[in-house]
Design brief:
By secondary structure, the protein is mainly α. The protein has eight helices and no strands.
Length: 123
């Protein structure tokens, strides 16, 4: 079973970030982040909150808390989606945006998607 540090490391690596990138963004030392990722220490409540906001995940996910047992949906039981190197690069850029710019990018993506759906498909 993965511990909080394993999940933090997985999240960082999935975004192609260095420990120093994350530590600087969270205003903590690289040594502290390293100790979290190696499961030597656990984040303070404030640092846990900042980590959740930074990675856009819930504390439940990081702490592996399951509130109620339900049947997994088909999307949860399917194989994980493979992400191409180009998609990883785009995600890493997106994660570095501030909240306002993230919302703008998401809005544009939705707008373009809806526009694409309205157009007749090429035969």
């Amino acid at each position: 079973m993965k511990q909080i540090g394993d999940r933090l490391r997985d999240l960082r690596e999935a975004r192609n970030l260095k420990q120093t990138d994350v530590a600087n963004a969270l205003c903590i030392s690289n040594k502290i982040l390293s100790s979290y990722e190696r499961n030597i220490s656990v984040p303070t409540i404030d640092n846990l909150k900042h980590l959740c906001e930074f990675y856009n995940v819930s504390a439940d996910y990081l702490l592996q808390i399951e509130l109620e047992k339900t049947e997994p949906s088909s999307s949860e039981t399917s194989a994980p989606m493979l992400i191409s190197p180009e998609q990883k690069k785009l995600l890493s850029y997106f994660e570095r945006l501030n909240t306002e710019n993230k919302e703008a990018v998401l809005g544009l993506m939705i707008l373009y998607y809806k526009e694409q759906q309205r157009k007749p498909k090429d035969v």
